[in-house]
Design brief:
Chain lengths: 354, 333
């Protein structure tokens, strides 16, 4: 950690006290946070779109942007934690759909209350995470390979099982089954705030970010996550339960996938089994923009949330600005690049000013 | 999240609770209908020798549209005593490798979609040289003859777009938004181009079709930004169902139109929430492709007189939709 190595100038200023316990100014604490670069990038992007597309600032538009961000952000919470812990998960995009399909097919096939399907889906999601984790631990292969394999297997299972059970490649609609309305209220309703309908996923997302931040910064488990991401061998040597923490992280990603999967199911009544492919990269991008290092050991849950928000803004802002749609993907890529560059510049400034 | 013992305990508890819940929690509505008596049209099977036919498409996995084509092909195969291989790959190079594999396996006929005709040319030449009959379906109406297919079953996408445009024009629509779920897809772009030819005020919106939440939020954003739009067109049934949700979220009054079909969409048309859909009758494409190969093998028949046999566009509005609801639920339409 760079804050431990004191620079000579620093020493002069506080020669009487030990600089390791010395007080830092609020600004330097703020600048030292991993998400600060992303925050500056987000503010810049926000101001930019507010100028080029005034409709962007209307409350209804902001609600739409937040909704778009939340469907990426919910997964980015788990993916950020996992990345801080030093691992990747490429199966997240399709695992979301696996979860939605299991809830839907179980309740439809057996004619059960959909809440039973929801519980089964939670078990399936946690099990996927558990299997990813246990294979990683047992084989010592890189998580890139392990989760690429589970990505492919889940893609196949989604298609194969959906067709075998439901007779079609999309799950049958469960909109008229018992429990559907109450589940929809939990996972896919809207909350009216001052006349604006805000999707419930926005609040679920924010709650999950807060909980994840608390775990990371205020609990023993949080320290473990940073430790295994920073140096796994050293962490093991000082007694961190590496196996349990890693498996737990993959299961946390599974949990996030379950939340998003349930939203997908209850917002759209039925799920196409081919969906979700490619989204795993969006979640990783959100975490990286938010300041999580690809090598692990550094990052924050709030950063992942800001990353998802940047993605949501760029994605929807281009539509609000009514630019030529042919160039949409190009602009999206450019936005992401600029946001990330601002991120790096700010972070370097912050580190050199310490 | 929760590490160690507590999580195990929770898992164990839920494992016990779930079956208990299950017993007490049967839904009295919806769910799987009891299996009907088998009354499929494939009552008797043709007495001809068993032949092998490969249907090789550019379908992305998990698309409801291609599911209907597959079911059509399966019904024809069951009737005609055909061993059917249904394969597909959206990548042109890999699709042509599937053709090569089918040739190696010694199939009697190949039905192929020509979305990327140039990539198929070499493999199809080998198939012709090996004496394998070829038909094309769904895509390739302008190239099928030169590539060695004796018939083509499909709809002309541009024509379908124009048909939708005419219908929209008759409804007084001037500024529709055409939502493309896969940027750069030739067929989808052609549909929107067809609409634009008839209704010049048409605008295109690109969305990511593999993520419905993004389809909804992007469309909502467009409807909030563009207050002049008076209609929105989905190019696939599941996409249109999501557009309806975006319309509600954006509190918009736009009319909704669609391409292709599924049972939910037919329901929305009968309720009047969707004006119409342009159907290309994919069931017939799958069925006719297999059946014509069999007829060709059995009696040397050809169909279409060297021209493409069009299975669409067929406009399904409220009046038509009421008659075909049951077929859509069966997955035939």
């Amino acid at each position: 950690m760079s804050s431990i190595t004191a620079s000579p100038s620093h020493k002069k200023k506080s020669a009487t006290t030990d600089e390791r316990v010395g007080k830092k100014s609020t600004l330097s604490i703020l600048l030292g946070r991993p998400e600060i670069g992303a925050l500056v990038g987000a503010v810049a992007l926000f101001i930019f779109f507010a100028i080029v597309a005034p409709v962007f600032l209307s409350p209804a538009s902001l609600a739409t942007v937040l909704y778009g961000a939340s469907t990426i952000g919910i997964m980015a919470v788990g993916v950020s934690l996992l990345m801080i812990g030093g691992e990747f998960d490429l199966s997240t995009g399709v695992a979301v759909i696996s979860s939605a399909l299991s809830a839907s097919l179980v309740s439809w096939y057996f004619g059960l209350n959909v809440w039973v399907g929801i519980v089964v889906a939670l078990l399936v999601s946690m099990l996927i995470g558990f299997i990813n984790g246990i294979i990683l631990i047992k084989t010592k292969l890189p998580s890139f390979i392990v989760t690429l394999a589970s990505f492919l297997m889940l893609t196949g299972l989604n298609l194969g099982l959906t067709r075998a059970i439901g007779g079609s490649v999309s799950s049958p609609s469960i909109a008229n089954m018992e429990g559907f309305q109450s589940a929809k209220a939990v996972f896919a309703s809207s909350v009216n705030i001052g006349g604006i309908e805000v999707k419930v996923t926005v609040f679920i997302w924010l709650a999950m970010v807060l909980i994840a931040s608390w775990i990371l910064l205020r609990t023993k488990v949080g320290n473990w996550i940073f430790a295994i991401g920073g140096d796994e061998k050293a962490a093991r040597a000082v007694g961190v339960p590496v196996v349990r923490t890693k498996i737990g992280l993959f299961m946390a990603v599974g949990f996030c996938g379950w939340v998003l999967g349930m939203h997908n199911l209850f917002a759209f009544d039925s799920v196409q089994s081919g969906e979700g492919i490619g989204n795993e990269f969006l979640y990783i991008i959100a975490a990286v923009i938010g300041g999580c290092l690809l090598t692990g050991g550094y990052g924050s849950a709030i950063g992942g949330a800001i990353g998802a928000f940047i993605f949501g803004m760029a994605n929807k802002g281009i539509v609000y600005a009514e630019w030529n749609p042919d160039w949409f993907k190009f602009f999206l890529g450019l936005m992401l690049l600029l946001a990330t560059v601002v991120n790096i510049v700010v972070k370097k400034r912050a580190e050199s000013s310490k | 999240m929760n590490m160690g013992k507590p999580m195990w305990r929770k898992l164990a508890v839920s494992l016990v609770i779930v079956p208990v819940l299950g017993l007490a929690a049967c839904s009295s509505s919806g769910g799987r209908a009891p299996e009907p008596e088998s009354n499929s049209a494939a009552g008797t099977v043709a007495a001809t020798d068993r032949i092998k036919i490969a249907v090789i498409t550019h379908a992305p996995p998990g698309d409801t549209f291609w599911d209907i084509i597959r079911k059509g092909a399966e019904e024809a195969a069951a009737k005609d005593n055909v061993e059917l291989q249904y394969l597909g790959d959206p990548d042109g190079g890999r699709q042509s490798q599937l053709i090569e594999q089918a040739i190696d396996q010694g199939v009697d006929g190949i039905a192929v979609t020509l979305a990327k005709p140039d990539a198929m040319a070499g493999a199809l030449k080998r198939a012709s040289d090996a004496g394998i009959s070829i038909v094309s379906l769904n895509a390739g109406e302008d190239r099928f003859k030169e590539l060695g297919a004796f018939a083509h079953f499909g709809s002309d996408e541009k024509l379908a777009g124009e048909a939708a445009g005419e219908k929209l024009k008759a409804e007084g629509i001037k500024k529709p938004i055409c939502v493309i779920q896969d940027q750069g897809h030739v067929g989808l772009e052609a549909r929107c181009a067809g609409v634009k030819k008839v209704v010049p005020g048409t605008e295109v919106l690109y969305v990511q079709g593999t993520d419905m939440t993004q389809v909804e939020s992007t469309t909502t954003a467009k409807l909030q930004a563009d207050k002049q739009a008076d209609a929105i067109i989905g190019l696939g049934a599941p996409i249109t169902m999501t557009l309806l949700k975006a319309k509600a979220t954006a509190n918009s009054e736009v009319a909704v139109a669609s391409f292709d079909m599924n049972s939910q969409l037919v329901g929305e048309i009968t309720k009047g929430n969707v004006l119409f859909t342009v159907d290309q009758q994919p069931w017939l494409q799958g069925y006719m492709a297999v059946d014509s190969l069999w007829q060709n093998k059995r009696g040397g028949f050809t169909i279409g007189g060297g021209k493409a046999t069009l299975t669409g566009p067929a406009i399904i509005d409220k009046a038509v939709a009421e008659n075909i609801t049951s077929f859509a639920e069966e997955g035939v339409r």
